[in-house]
Amino acid sequence: MAIRVVVADDQEIVRTGLTMILDAQPGIEVVGEAADGGRAVELARHLRPDVCLFDIRMPNVDGIEATRRLAGPAVADPLAVVVITTFDLDEYVYAALRAGARGFLLKDSGTALLTQAVHAAAEGDALIAPSITTRLLTAFVDAGPAAPPRQPVDALTDREEQVLVAVARGRTNGEIADELHISLSTVKSHIASLMAKLGVRNRVEIAIWAYETDRVRKGLGSPK
Q1: What is the mean pLDDT of each run of 10 residues along the chain (224 residues)?
Q2: CA-to-CA distance for 83 and 91, rounded, in angstroms?
Q3: End-to-end Cα distance, the chain
Q4: pTM of this prediction exceeds 0.85
Q5: Measured at the alpha carbon of residue 116, what is the angle toward residues 49 and 5, in degrees to the nearest 5?
């Protein structure tokens, strides 16, 4: 079945362009469009798309608040939201991640990366290129966590520590499998276990926890 997407951007030419690009890709279908965040939230709640692609700067309700309403900590059944913007500003990144976004994409990223981001979001996989992930998450954590990092329900295994650091460095499931010489299904099993132990809901939250607990900067979990 096709990946169902809702696109929200207040600029009609941008919204139309994103829709045309996505509809032209095999296995992707834009099922709704909105010019402001309030309408985007209504559409998303009604249509339950696989992925929401939201601009940040929109009238009435902006993309950050729309993301919070659909994917924030208080949402029992969150949707996958990718924030897309022209502005590569750290304060937008912080706000998007705090609101529950799984990824952050620039509008000049190109068709290939846009398509990859939609597929990744639908699969719960990485959404940001490794170099950008490292910069954004490091800056995010340096700004200070909203609360002290939670401790895992059960201690992480050595392999889970390795997968944790790989996720924080922006690796995809396939790249983690190759790097650690394990199967793709094993990677997915470790990620599911990490989410359960850490009490988080997606890969971005796993990565944030790894940075907040200093595991990446200390090299914890790095393959020997």
Answers
A1: 96 95 96 96 97 93 95 90 78 77 80 86 67 61 64 91 89 88 94 91 81 71 48
A2: 13
A3: 41
A4: no
A5: 15
DSSP string, 166-205: HHHTT--HHHHHHHHT--HHHHHHHHHHHHHHHT--SHHH
Encoded tokens for 190: 């470790």
Cα 125 from Cα 170, distance rounded (Å): 10
% residues pLDDT > 70 (the chain): 83
What's the CA gap between 68 and 182, in Å, rounded?
A: 35
Distance (Å, whole) CA 30 – CA 101: 19
- Which domains are present in the chain? 3-124 (3.40.50.2300), 130-224 (1.10.10.10)
Instruction: Note whether 114 and 93 are within 8 A (CB).
Output: no
Q: Note the residue count of the chain.
A: 224
